[in-house]
Amino acid sequence: MTTADKATRLLALHQAPEILTVVNVWDVVSARVVADVEGTTALATASHSIAASLGYEDGERIPVDEMVDAVARIVRATELPVSADLEAGYGDPAETIRKAIGVGVVGANLEDRMRPLPEAVAAVEAAIGAARAEGVPDFVLNARTDAFLVAGDRDPADVLADAVERGRAFLEAGAPVVFVPGRLDEAQVSTLVDALGPQRLTLICVPGSLSPRRMEELGVARVSFGPWSQRVALTALKHLVGRARQGQGLPDHVEALN
């Protein structure tokens, strides 16, 4: 498939009534492991995980070209459509999207970081415009609002209202889906789906969140795991170190990788 064809495929996966579950990857080997699991239909990177694997703190500390290079290696390792976490666009969302499309990326997360709404909308419009200019009109921009992540002690009703306002604005600006990370309860998810429409909301699975099955029943388009997939892998590594220090061998369930 061409890059444009993969984007169309990824968009269709978001629009289907079945929830799209993506376990985020951060390098070639993690991408191959996830892609090889039966039923995997798309991959998504985690910016935090890629940055950590290369020795950077999260928050656009990694140079944009180094991030794009890391994503490019993942794209080359699979035939599946790949969505990239591109943080807030590294100071130039349109150019960052253009670079990502150039290496075969067909979707991206773009954070608003709760900047003034007109500024956040302009970033979404610039990203969508860049994708269309590159010949990928179905590019799946997952426009993210950080309303819940930076809520602090604000009234939850006000936070939810902000997420609704920003999500609607991002959809009007051309984003096909809106990402609202945080540990949302069922009432909050239902409100967002009602406000944005079914198969327009994407969420993250964190400890204590709704199950992906329940998210699907509520009309959520996609659920990802962000940096938690890398944390699960590193937790298993720590457990192995502990076993080794106790004189034990490998766990019985370890599988060989091709």
Question: Can you give a write-up of this model?
Answer:
- It is a single chain.
- Strands 1-8-7-6-5-4-3-2 form an 8-stranded parallel sheet.
- Helix 5 (93-102) packs parallel to helix 6 and helix 7 packs parallel to helix 8 (186-196).
- It starts with a helix and ends in a 13-residue tail after the last helix.
- The protein is built from 10 helices and 8 strands.
- It has one domain: Phosphoenolpyruvate-binding domains (TIM Barrel).
- It has helices at residues 3-15, 28-35, 47-53, 64-76, 93-102, 117-133, 156-172, 186-196, 212-218, 228-245; strands at 20-22, 43-44, 82-85, 107-111, 140-144, 177-179, 201-204, 222-224.
- The model has no long low-confidence stretch (mean pLDDT 96).
- With 258 residues, it is of the alpha/beta class.
Question: What characteristics describe this protein?
Answer:
TIM Barrel, 258 residues, alpha/beta, 10 helices, globular, 8 strands, 8-stranded parallel sheet, single chain
Summarize the structure.
The chain has 258 residues and is α/β, with parallel strands linked by helices. The chain contains 10 helices and 8 strands.
